[in-house]
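Key result, reporting period 2: structure in, sequence out.
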């Protein structure tokens, strides 16, 4: 059991905050119990992305009591394996919960442009980015959990802050952001020195 005094002394570094923002724009999740003084981060990644899960654990490990473990879940008759871990419930996550979950459902908060750094964008891309096709230099950000106005907000920030031309792409399960192949050089410049090796296949330009 982690001594209480150590838990009380924990604070998020600026780098941890950047990573957290990127995760929350992607598939990261914060939970808060009613009347709790804090919140906790839940991380779950496909076993194929074990490198990413371990990397995230290393970043937040002082907040984690139990290292990543493999969890088996059954969905639609198929068995999936995820690498999962949770942080402690801690007050330093509370402001981020209130920012992203003001009514209990995750949103894109106002002022997100102040927090969306190149590091946060890279984490978001590793978390929820994908390729359109092997032939295309365009890239996808899977934003299905957000409403259209939130996605439009993100598209505006991607253009104004990172010079990334993007648009809404309609899918059966909702809306994605499509980053144009015309912005491949700009996106590559942001990602290439930060992205983990297991995600090199997602880069719009190779080499």
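The corresponding designed sequence is given below.
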């Amino acid at each position: 059991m982690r001594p209480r005094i150590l838990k009380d002394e924990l604070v998020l570094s600026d780098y941890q905050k950047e990573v957290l923002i990127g995760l929350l724009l992607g598939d990261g999740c914060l939970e808060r119990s009613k009347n709790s003084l804090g919140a906790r981060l839940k991380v779950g990644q496909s076993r194929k992305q074990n490198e990413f899960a371990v990397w995230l654990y290393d970043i937040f490990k002082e907040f984690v009591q139990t290292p990543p473990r493999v969890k088996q879940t059954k969905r639609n008759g198929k068995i999936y394996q995820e690498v999962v871990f949770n942080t402690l419930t801690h007050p330093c996550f509370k402001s981020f919960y209130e920012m992203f979950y003001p009514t209990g459902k995750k949103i894109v908060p106002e002022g997100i442009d102040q927090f969306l750094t190149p590091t946060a964008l890279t984490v978001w891309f590793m978390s929820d980015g994908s390729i359109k096709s092997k032939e295309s230099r365009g890239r996808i950000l899977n934003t299905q959990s957000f409403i259209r106005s939130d996605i439009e907000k993100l598209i505006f920030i991607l253009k104004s802050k990172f010079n990334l031309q993007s648009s809404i792409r309609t899918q059966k399960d909702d809306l994605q952001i499509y980053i144009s192949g015309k912005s491949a050089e700009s996106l590559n410049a942001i990602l290439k020195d930060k992205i983990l090796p297991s995600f090199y296949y997602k880069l719009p330009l190779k080499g």
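The longest strand covers residues 78-86. Strands lie at 29-31, 40-46, 69-75, 78-86, 129-131, 139-141, 166-171, 174-179. This case is discussed further under Risks and Mitigation.
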